[in-house]
Design brief:
Layout (H helix, E strand, L loop, with lengths): L2 H19 L17 H7 L5 H6 L3 E14 L2 E8 L2 E8 H4 L1 H9 L6 E10 L5 E12 L15 H6 L1 H7 L1 H22 L4 E2 L5 E2 L11 E4 L4 E5 L4 H9 L4 E9 L11 E10 L3 H20 L3 E4 L2 E4 L5 E4 H8 L4 H4 L2 H10 L10 H12 L8 E7 L15 E9 L2 E8 L4 H16 L10 H8 L5 E7 H9 L19
Parallel strand pairs: 3-5, 6-10, 14-15
Antiparallel strand pairs: 1-2, 1-4, 2-3, 4-5, 7-9, 8-9, 10-11, 11-18, 12-13, 15-16, 16-17, 17-18
Helix pairs in contact: 7-8, 8-10, 8-17, 11-14, 13-14, 15-16
């Protein structure tokens, strides 16, 4: 029998003993203990109380949490409890809690057990705020041992698969996910303060649209109808703008049937927002304000340390067109960027496959993705995307081959995508048809033809700009995290091999 199996067997025997001694008044898994304060609250509130002050005026408290340290010294012992706010030490004496309770404390309690302690505050000889126990209670007997205490939980795969264990053992993980929650809250505050309406749109759609991405397919039994998990909420949000909600935003999940990587999870969280009587250039300014607001609200500063780079979001973000960025980061000339044959040859030399139906714009974007994106470390807006790869964006008035669109990059990753919305229903019909043609040629990421959305456009979409921002990637950026898996509580992973 392995050492771990022996530990589990031993804990099961202890639980059997607890069950055998239990009754209606003292059940094996009680649910009547209530704590009066969290560890951090007590540490903060009584930070100025010395030993004498705590002795003169007894302060009664009830604390509960997971036992992370257990030191027994004959007729007295110390334990350290961990609750959502931090840790607090408790001092347990046999002559105070009783012989039977102390015997259970010594023999039946293990690291990881969830326990409750009532008592009065004290300071140890070393000055540590502690609880002098007058009553102790086992609340949940655990069967699985915690990882070895000195090294914690280091294995990255285990941390992702068993997030609950990661959160128990690693304060940095708990801190990261608190930051994530604060980021979402600050985004919500930012838009509500600007008179945006928060909305929810369907996760299941009859026609996948709003982004070029391969959808997940499901089936509605009662309707005998295939449905698609949404790849983006865009078309429904713009329907709302048509209906008169001129500023809307949604924070919710998107689903894209793509591979797993440090940058991609098939289920991810997006902020998407739309503003009538606005264009993409105004959203560029709004996006800078938004990220600065989030940084100040969550981190208290606009400066973020990333690897060997310091990002200062108070600085004006860099801005280049797609073609300017390619010329800046490669030796490809303007003439070569206008030559399909040359671009195909460059991509072929990089062992990348090109489709014969791809036009110049798609080839330029393949060059951008291959040579430029990973080099955009500082916050950078890239503009003037080819219309060919922007099926929902408004054409530029001066140059109809490019769209009034931008993407924001930082640390080599796309963070946001925004554009002036296409509100010409006839132009949109032609773009949808081009997508349908691509799908017929085998492009699994191409959009379908959404007739109802065209009908909505025929009722009139005012001049509008919209944007989608990847919250997971924003959290990665603000926390110097290398993998998207580390900022998602329960990332998708391949099943373990049996």
């Amino acid at each position: 029998m392995s050492e771990e199996h022996e530990i589990v067997r031993n804990r099961r025997e202890k639980l059997d003993r607890i069950r055998a001694a239990s009754n209606a008044e003292y059940p094996a898994f009680p649910n009547s203990f209530r704590r009066s304060a969290l560890a951090s609250e007590l540490q903060e509130k009584y930070s100025g109380f010395d030993r004498e002050a705590l002795s003169e005026t007894p302060i009664e408290v009830s604390v509960a949490g997971r036992m992370m340290l257990h030191r027994d010294a004959g007729k007295a012992g110390f334990i350290t409890l961990q609750d959502p706010s931090g840790r607090l030490q408790c001092y347990v004496r046999m002559d105070v809690v009783g012989d039977a309770n102390y015997a259970a404390f010594k023999d039946l309690w293990d690291l990881g057990d969830i326990v409750g302690v009532e008592g009065t505050l004290m300071r140890t000889n070393k000055g540590e705020l502690s609880v002098r126990a007058t009553r102790i209670e086992m609340l949940t007997k655990t069967l699985q041992p915690l990882p070895e205490k000195f090294h914690g939980l280091q294995d990255q795969e285990t941390r992702s698969r068993q997030r609950y264990l990661d959160l128990i053992m690693n304060e940095e993980s708990r801190k990261l996910f608190r930051i994530r929650s604060a980021v979402i809250q600050s985004l919500r505050e930012f838009f509500l303060a600007r008179d945006y309406l928060e909305v929810e749109t369907p996760m299941m759609q009859i026609i996948p649209g709003g982004a070029t991405a391969r959808p997940f397919v499901t089936h509605h039994n009662a309707l005998d109808l295939d449905l698609y998990l949404r790849v983006a909420p865009e078309l429904n949000l713009k329907r709302l703008v048509v209906g008169g909600f001129e500023r809307v935003f949604e924070i919710n999940r998107n689903f894209r049937n793509e591979g797993l990587s440090t940058r991609h999870n098939p289920e991810f969280t997006m902020l998407e927002f739309y503003q009538a009587y606005s264009d993409y250039s105004e959203l560029i300014s709004l996006t800078q304000d938004m990220i600065r607001y989030v940084c100040k609200s969550v981190l208290g500063s606009t400066i973020v340390e990333q690897e060997n780079i310091t990002l200062d979001f108070s600085d004006e973000f860099e801005q280049y067109t797609v073609l300017e960025s390619i010329q800046k980061h490669t030796e490809i000339t303007a003439d070569e960027l206008a030559n399909e044959a040359v671009l195909r040859a460059i991509l072929t030399n990089r062992n990348l496959t090109t489709h014969p139906d791809w036009g110049l714009g798609r080839l330029q974007m393949e060059i951008f993705d291959e040579f430029v994106e990973a080099r955009l470390m500082k916050p950078t807006f890239i503009t003037q995307y080819p219309v060919e790869v922007s099926p929902l964006s408004r054409k530029n008035d001066a140059n109809p081959h490019v769209a009034d669109r931008f993407e924001l990059f930082a640390m080599g990753r796309e963070i946001a995508n925004g554009f002036s919305e296409l509100n010409d229903s006839e132009d949109q019909a032609q773009r949808f048809q081009a997508q349908v043609d691509l799908k017929a040629q085998g492009d699994l990421e191409a959009m379908g033809f959404d007739h109802d959305y065209l009908t909505a456009l025929e009722y009139g979409l005012p001049p509008t700009a919209g944007e989608g921002l990847g919250i997971d990637r924003l959290v990665m950026l603000l926390t110097n995290t290398a993998s998207i898996r580390d900022v998602i509580l329960f990332p998708h992973m391949r099943p373990r091999e049996s």
